[in-house]
Hints:
By secondary structure, this protein is mainly beta. The protein is built from two helices and 30 strands. Mean pLDDT is 93; it is low at 1-20.
Amino acid sequence: MKIAPGILFLCLLVAAAFRGNAQNPIIQTKFTADPAPLVYRDTVFLYTSHDEDDAKGFKMFNWLLYTSTDMVNWTDHGKVASTKSFSWAPQNGAWAPQCIERNGKFYLYCPIHVKGIGVLVSDSPYGPFTDPLGKPLIQNSIDDIDPTVHIDDDGQAYLYWGNPSLYYVKLNEDMISYAGDIVKSPTKPANYQEGPWFYKRKDKYYVAYASTCCPEGIGYSMSTSPTGPWNYTGMLMDSDPRSNGNHPGIIDYKGNSYLFGFNYAISKALSPTHTERRSVCVDKLTYNGDGTIQKLPFWSDAGVDRVATLNPYKRTEAETIASSQGLKTDKGPNEMYVTNIDSGDYIKVRGVNFEKGAKEFLASVASNAGNPVIELHLDSPTGTLLGTLKVKSTESLENWVVQSCKVGRQGGIHDVYFVFKAASNNALRFDWWQFNR
């Protein structure tokens, strides 16, 4: 369901008109927070917590997954796990997770508010994830939230967590048990609040974190040891009234370093009243020669540059989105699709490499009413019209049919906008698309 029939996203569109070619927040179809990026092979797997559309406080039932190979187009894989994945968890309280790979298995560490930190295991980063323990891995104190995990060069894995104290423990090689005592860090930075992100880069260890609430900025400390002492080094981002909370996630990918976090831009486009409906953002991070990190201003509107192009001549999921207006995503029995489409809504996909051009556009669609249209525009919602797909009724929203139209021979690299016309009352669903040469 849309919030107040599209008001949220219409407000966002108005705000975007003043921001120009905005990329942040990077997810517009759902409220997302607590980003936990994982680089696996050639792909960034972005695990997030999920604020419900009607949340006022923290209303969080599940964890979501998005992937990208270019840092600008993000494919929505929907819910990857939920509080129901744990037999011991209440419904609400699916807070900040992190996932890591070891020996071909993927371990998703999930805090359940006031219940502890659990761990789920899968043979694939996409899931399904299952609970091997049937109980919390960590059940130490009310501070047991926001786990962060790293495997050191010698194979020893560490789990850090905590609000407002900072704890760590050494994980066993099975990643679902630990050895020794839980240690409360005696060198926690004075402005540490929550949301630690523990990692190593070159010969230095880092803990980035959400700083003193509220609003929260992002601070960081460095050490030459995985267990500290932690020396406060500076701020990655100062606190700002535009974002009540924060939660860092840091990766290196394709020659660049990136800082993920969140803001409240989409929520505040709807209403100045504060709600916990957050939206993940990303900006490029720059290290100095001594390993310290240059401070960023508040999350930029522009976001980051793409680091690859998209091949339009293979099937691309419709829920692969750089930015969008109005629509939502949902998951059927088998896969994700785009839904809640109204006339004037659009999807933007960045960096589509047509090379010498295409002749035909294919789309898997379902429609049960009216005569919806998908216009294909280049570089803006009103840019060069590449082609128009007049969608024929498939008689049911569960009946997917591949339909096609001819397109102009436009070459080169372009942003592509799928602009929906004559669509209303949730009468159109969009599953995947592809161009043919």
